[in-house]
Every structure is written in structure tokens, then in C-alpha cells.
Amino acid sequence: MKVAFIAHDQKKNDLVNFAKAYESILSKHELYSTGTTGTRIMESTNLKIHRFNSGPLGGDQEIGSLIAKNLMDIVIFFRDPLTAQPHEPDILALIRLCDVYSIPLATNMGTAEILIHGLERGDLSWRNLVHEKQNKEENE
């Protein structure tokens, strides 16, 4: 499965701690992240992460592009709901894309833990069916 990580500045430590706690599960999957968040996770774990630009510099949109192509399976986005974000339209677009393409999205620790345990149990295997259907349509 392909998992994307995004975190606002005030939530980066929380996401790093989350990645450390679930490193053994996450290490079995393809990981993606916006720039600084990915760097921070890699510095604190042995996880390999494909990094995009920083969120305000287009990283959210780069992850959104993968979602729009149905090439992302889970998004873990620790948002800071108490601080105004200058790139709020990009954030809302990313959330909308997750809804349009039925991509599981966690915006807080509680939901992220539920998703990660579901990932570990194989509860998200329905995403593989989406990929198989997409591949079949592309080959026809």
C-alpha cells in the first residue's frame, strides 16, 4: 500500500512519534511525504520515504496528483486546526480529492491509529481491487 504523510508545523512532532511507534508496520509499505515532514520522519526512524516539496511549495498538490490518478491508498495528514494556514485552499483541495476517490484520510492521531491497525490486519485490501480494476481498464 502507498501511504502519504503530511503535517502542519505544530503537528510534525506528533507525526514523527506516530511513525516511530508504528515503524514496523509502515516499513512494509511505500511511503510518501511532503518535504520537511518526510525529512523529520527519516531522521527519527529507519523508514525510507519518497519526499515531495514542502506543503506550501506544492507538496500537498503533488500528493493530490497521485490521489487523482488513484495511486495513493492512505493519507495521514496531521492538521493544526488552531492555526490559520496560508495554503488553506491546497489543503481543502487535498481533502476533497480524498473524498472523491475514497482514499482513507486521517487528520488526527486517533483516526491514524485506526487506519494503521486496519492496514496491519489487511482491512484495506479493497484498495488492491481498485488498482486491479484500474490496470485492467488501462490495458483494454
Element pattern in H and E: EHHEHEHEHEHH
Which regions contain 5 or more consecutive residues with pLDDT less than 50?
none
The gross shape turns out to be: globular
Can you identify the CATH superfamily? Methylglyoxal synthase-like domain
Strand order within the widest beta sheet: 3-2-1-4-5
Strand element count: 5
If you compute it from the alpha carbons, what radius of gyration comes out, rounded to the nearest whole angstrom?
Answer: 14 Å
Q: End-to-end distance, in Å?
A: 24 Å
State the CATH class: Alpha Beta
Instruction: Give the biggest sheet.
Output: 5 strands, parallel
For the record, the CATH architecture stands as: 3-Layer(aba) Sandwich
Q: What structural class should be given to the helix and strand makeup?
A: alpha/beta
> What proportion strand?
5-15%
How many individual domains?
Answer: 1
Mean pLDDT: 91
Count of helix runs:
7
Describe the structure.
With 140 residues, this protein is an alpha/beta fold. It has one domain (2-139): Rossmann fold, CATH 3.40.50.1380. 53% of the residues lie in helices and 14% in strands. The chain contains seven helices and five strands. A five-stranded parallel β-sheet has the order 3-2-1-4-5, sandwiched between helices. Helix 1 (12-21) crosses helix 3 and helix 4 (59-68) packs parallel to helix 5. The protein is globular, with a radius of gyration of 14 Å. The relative contact order is 0.17.
